[in-house]
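[step 3/7] inverse_fold.run input=structure_tokens len=110
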């Protein structure tokens, strides 16, 4: 049998082959699920579907000895379809018991 590099590092060849098989098996499983999900998803839902797949891939990366799962970025918030109209201007009327000596000018009237 040919001695691979893992055997020189102290890892038996059969264990390295099993680890590579598990790694490729996980990648194949994610690929198959991605294709099946993307076939059934509506095109408008692709951003949400791809975000969900990135969460699954990130979780699977946490199972690797060198992998650290990181939270994938969230989708940007979409703007509201319609904005509210500006509120109408309000006016204030002051009522006194006795009339003022001169015209009253409020700071908002200038």
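[step 3/7] decode complete -> sequence:
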């Amino acid at each position: 049998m040919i001695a691979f590099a893992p055997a020189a590092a102290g890892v038996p060849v059969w264990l390295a082959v099993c680890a590579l098989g598990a790694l490729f098996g996980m990648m194949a499983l994610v690929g198959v699920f991605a294709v099946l999900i993307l076939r059934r998803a509506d095109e408008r839902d692709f951003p949400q579907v791809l975000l969900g797949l990135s969460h699954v891939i990130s979780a699977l990366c946490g199972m690797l000895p060198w992998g650290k799962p990181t939270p994938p970025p969230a989708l940007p918030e979409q703007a509201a379809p319609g904005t509210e109209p500006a509120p109408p201007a309000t006016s204030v009327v002051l009522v006194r018991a006795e009339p003022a000596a001169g015209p009253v000018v409020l700071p908002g009237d200038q």
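[step 4/7] annotate
The longest helix spans residues 13-40.
The chain has a mean pLDDT of 76.
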